[in-house]
Structure formats: structure tokens, C-alpha cells
């Protein structure tokens, strides 16, 4: 009789735990509410939010978003009313 039990791969689990699937999950992570999904699409388009697609689903990594947010905190804000999106 062979042992068919698989040993969990910690790298795979770490990646899966770090991955956000869909604009709703990304919005919940960044803004604390799923209703901000349009903001996620806007930021992905205009502010270079670090996201990628798996098929048609927008995805992001929690760790990458945290680094991006930290980088944004150190940047100079644009004057009010000036659009960053062309």
C-alpha cells in the first residue's frame, strides 16, 4: 500500500495567502469595503496600482500592495484638481 498523502508546499501556501482575487477583494484590502471596486479600476488605470490579470480577473498580491502604499506615502501629492489620469 502506498502513501498518497501529499506534503503541503509552504511556498504555494504563502503565495495563495498573499494573492487577492478580483476587484472586490482588492478594494476590501485597500479601502475596507467591497463597494470601492470602481476605485480599484481607476487606480489601476491612472495611478499605476500594481495589479495583474489571471484571465479576465484582476488580481494583486497583498505584499506588493503594501510596498506600493508605503511608496505612495513618501511621494509629493499633486495639487488639488490636477488629474493624474490623461
Folded structure, characterized:
There is one protein chain. This protein is of the alpha+beta class and 86 residues long. 48% of the residues lie in helices and 13% in strands. It has 4 helices and 3 strands, in the order H-E-H-H-E-E-H. It has helices at residues 10-18, 22-31, 37-46, 62-73; strands spanning 19-21, 52-54, 57-61. Helix 2 (22-31) packs across helix 3 (37-46). The longest helix is centred in the last third of the chain and has 12 residues, at 62-73.
Quick gist of this model?
With 86 residues, the chain is of the alpha+beta class. The protein has helices at 10-18, 22-31, 37-46, 62-73, and strands spanning 19-21, 52-54, 57-61. The N and C termini lie far apart (65 Å).
Major beta sheet summary = 3 strands, antiparallel
Global outline: elongated
Distance between the termini: 65 Å
Q: How much β-strand is present in the residues?
A: 5-15%
User: Strand order of the main beta sheet, please?
Assistant: 1-3-2
Radius of gyration using CA atoms only: 17 Å
Mean pLDDT: 83
SS-based class: alpha+beta
Percentage of residues assigned to helices: 40-55%
**Count of DSSP-assigned helices:** 4
Q: How many strands appear in the DSSP assignment?
A: 3
